[in-house]
Design goal:
Alkaline Phosphatase, subunit A; 4 domains; seven-stranded antiparallel β-sheet; 37 strands; globular
């Protein structure tokens, strides 16, 4: 019997035994609900993780969920996520009903205890528990391994002619797809290109390399991506693996200009941070390519299609080659992203039949590989190809897509092949290797060292994957040592803030703002505030009563919790202390300032104070209420006299909020009490695009007025009559304009009209 079946049987036995035979009491009921609830959540997490990765709960899941999701094409996952949440609620309700059956009947205490033991056993035997336990074990290791006997720092010299480098990361495009016997005529164009290359056919995937940013780190730095803190909050840092020498660092030191192109947002998963930290001065993603795309509406859930991006890559290749200076040009595709990929409109291969049915993932592979092959052929046709090396590699093995079960019927490996402009001899190199070796192999081919980190050149050395038969276990054994490479501080005292560059620095480490630090003995853990992550104050609510913290954020967020005088203050403040006593809060002056964290206790510590603070911290921003006669749209929440506001998008950096007709056709504002019979509406706002100098409509009851705005903030006074004492005010933009400006990359464009800064009702006597 498999562990999954055994675990399920133990779960059912526990619930049945408690429901039918156990003596009922509050403590026993709480214990059994908690344990069986943990079982359900663990397996739901496993199911959800498997939906993305096909491999359950691994480092890829932890990294992605604890990092910024900004730029992620998550639209296809929203419905499944909502369905899972609903299913969990139903399951918990059903479980509680079953366990409460027969609650008034007397029962056996021994049976209740046995039910609890069975519940514990169901948790211990579920595969989800084992995966989480393995992740925690690798995270908490002591790091006393033989890591440094294998870790090597390369030099920064490149000998010889310094050929140009084109490196294409093909999203999830593993080598398995190119098996003509397994998947006939799926990738003929790129297979033909590969036939004339150095084709490394046995490239395996190791822990910490299973997702895009991890695969990039592995291929360029020769190390897996492991974080120095729980939650992997690397997006809060201003540097990424600061002590490591990676391929980009070496190329830059050797005089190369380093470029990176992709269709998705650069911020997703911290790719911009990683690349800019390691030698890349020119980065182009979704936002950066807006000005060059011919059709702004031609995009997928993640960003620009592969044909758009690779055309830009070719143009840049020609431009740089003409300058005669060495360069590297990296690109990442996206059309083959799970769950079923995207088909660009210029692709001739837009379908693929498998078992008599259309398969979207296979079709996306057929399409994207054609674009990659086309780019390579265009480069090969130029006079500069003779001084160029082209590399094509998968960033990682395919995750759980619509072709995944068919891939698993074969021996799977990553794609990695190399074309040299000065040598067109094709050769299959079947040595055992991993993606950690990719950067070292490229460096060797360019004329540099044949090692980077744990990576070894497959042209002149032996991979650690060949040295150790248990290489996956060795990688996990080395995880604590890899984490030490971040050189992350363990204590904080003196610090520096820079409001111009929006950073907070201490002990040589620079963080992006806003920032929350958990300060424990010998350990500091940053928490980050990015799109789709919980607000920092809600993360702070999870801190223990005596757990020290440092929080740098807008003053009004702290004011709502601890000091009403700060409730309308939009400047930055820093707070340090614990939750069971009032913290020290200081406003941060503009520019570069220095300070010191003291963790001074103000007042008595108490459990009551802790609970009050946690309650305030857990209030959602939209539910906040502040004392002001003016609606301030740069602040979360509303004045105490306003009931609700609808039809607005999120707070913008310029200090207001746009109306979004994609949400609602009008902006509606409702007060708790009737508005005066006659009043002046003092409105500070701006118009978007074609709405400038066109008539906006403001209406209350049967009274309606118009006003005009420019693209800049201006204040208008509008007199309104309200004889029926209505409570609801409506503002309507003349021509809401569809635009991707300011929209979170990977999400639907907005329909913007009016940008509201402030609004005040002034009664007229």
């Amino acid at each position: 019997m498999g562990s999954e079946s055994l675990s399920l049987l133990l779960f059912i036995a526990s619930a049945a035994l408690y429901s039918w035979k156990a003596g009922k009491n509050r403590l026993g009921f709480s214990a059994i609900v908690l344990l069986l609830g943990i079982y359900i959540v663990l397996n739901a997490s496993l199911l959800a993780s498997n939906y993305f990765t096909g491999e359950g709960i691994n480092d890829a899941v932890i990294y992605t969920l604890t990092n910024s999701l900004s730029g992620a094409g998550i639209g296809k996952y929203l419905l499944p996520a909502a369905g899972m949440v609903l299913a969990l609620l139903v399951l918990f309700a059903l479980l509680a009903w079953i366990l409460r059956r027969g609650q008034k009947r007397s029962g056996s205490k021994l049976c209740g205890l046995l039910a609890i033991v069975l519940a514990l056993a169901s948790i211990k035997t579920t595969p989800a528990y084992q995966q989480v336990a393995d992740l925690l074990k690798s995270q908490l290791g002591k790091g006393d391994s033989d890591f440094y006997a294998h870790y090597k720092v390369p030099g920064t010299q490149i000998r010889g002619d310094k050929p140009n480098l084109v490196y294409i990361y093909a999203e999830s495009l593993e080598r398995t797809y190119f098996d003509e016997a397994a998947f006939p005529h799926l990738a003929p164009e790129l297979n033909a290109v590969k036939a004339g290359s150095l084709d490394f056919s046995n490239t395996q995937q190791l822990p910490g390399t299973e997702y895009t940013i991890a695969g990039m780190v592995a291929s360029q730095c020769g190390i897996p991506l492991f974080a120095p803190f729980d939650g992997n909050a690397s997006s809060s840092l201003s540097t990424f693996y600061p002590q490591n020498v990676c391929l980009g660092d070496i190329l830059k030191a050797a005089g190369y200009q380093n470029y990176f192109y992709q269709g998705a947002s650069l911020s997703f998963a911290g790719k911009d941070l990683f690349l800019s930290s390691h030698g890349f001065d020119h980065l182009y993603g979704f936002n950066e390519l807006k000005s060059v795309v011919k059709d702004p509406s031609y995009r997928n859930d993640w960003g620009w299609y592969d044909d758009t991006v690779l055309d830009s890559v070719y143009d840049k290749y020609v431009e740089l080659a003409q300058q005669g200076q060495p360069f590297s040009l990296f690109a990442l595709t996206v059309d083959t992203h799970h769950p079923d990929g995207f088909i660009s409109r210029s692709c001739q291969r837009n379908s693929y039949l498998w078992e008599g049915k259309q398969n979207k993932s296979f079709a996306a592979v057929a399409c994207s590989q054609q674009h990659i092959a086309h780019l390579i052929e265009r480069i090969r046709a130029t006079p500069w190809f003779k001084n160029t090396i082209i590399v094509v590699s998968s960033d990682h093995l395919a995750m759980n897509n619509t072709a995944w079960k068919f891939l698993n019927q074969h021996d799977r490996s990553n794609l990695f092949f190399m074309l040299r402009g000065d040598n067109d001899d094709g050769k299959v190199i079947a040595v055992k290797r991993s993606t950690l070796d990719n950067g070292a192999t490229v460096l060797d081919a360019l004329g540099g060292d044949n090692f980077i980190g744990l990576g070894r050149s497959s042209l002149s050395s032996s991979s650690l994957a060949a040295t150790y038969l248990n290489i996956k276990e060795k990688i996990n054994e080395w995880k604590p040592d890899v984490i030490k490479l971040w050189n992350f501080p363990k204590a904080i005292a003196d610090y520096k803030t820079d409001t111009v560059n929006n950073t907070f620095s201490f002990a040589g480490v620079h963080f992006k703002l806003p920032l929350l630090l958990s300060v424990k003995p010998g350990k500091i853990e940053p928490k980050f505030d990015v799109y789709l992550a919980p607000p920092l104050k809600q993360q702070l609510a999870n801190f223990a009563p005596d757990e020290k913290f440092v929080w740098i954020d807008s003053c009004f967020k702290m004011g709502d919790v601890w000091d009403e005088k700060l409730a309308l203050n939009r400047q930055l403040c820093i707070a340090d202390g614990t939750l069971n006593s009032p913290p020290t809060i200081r406003e941060i002056n503009p520019g570069v300032t220095q300070g010191r964290v003291g963790f001074r206790q103000i007042g008595d510590q108490s459990e009551e104070r802790y609970q009050q603070t946690v309650t305030r911290l857990r209030i959602a921003d939209e539910d906040l209420r502040y004392a002001s006669d003016t609606l301030l749209f740069a602040l979360p929440g509303l004045p105490k006299q306003v009931q609700k506001v609808t039809g607005l998008s999120y707070i913008e950096p310029w200090g207001g909020r746009w109306s979004d007709a994609g949400l609602l056709p009008e902006v509606t504002l409702t007060w708790l009490e009737p508005l005066p019979e006659t009043f002046d509406l003092l409105l500070t706002a701006r118009a978007f695009g074609a709405n400038s100098q066109r008539p906006f409509v403001v209406k209350i009851g049967d009274s309606e007025q118009t006003f005009r705005l420019s693209h800049s903030d201006s204040t208008v006074s509008i007199r309104l009559s309200n004889p029926t004492r209505e409570r609801t005010l409506v503002i309507r933009a003349p021509v809401p304009e569809t635009t991707a400006e300011g929209a979170v990359a990977g999400f639907t464009a907005r329909q913007l009209g009016i940008g509201l800064v402030s609004l005040k009702v002034v009664p007229v006597q």
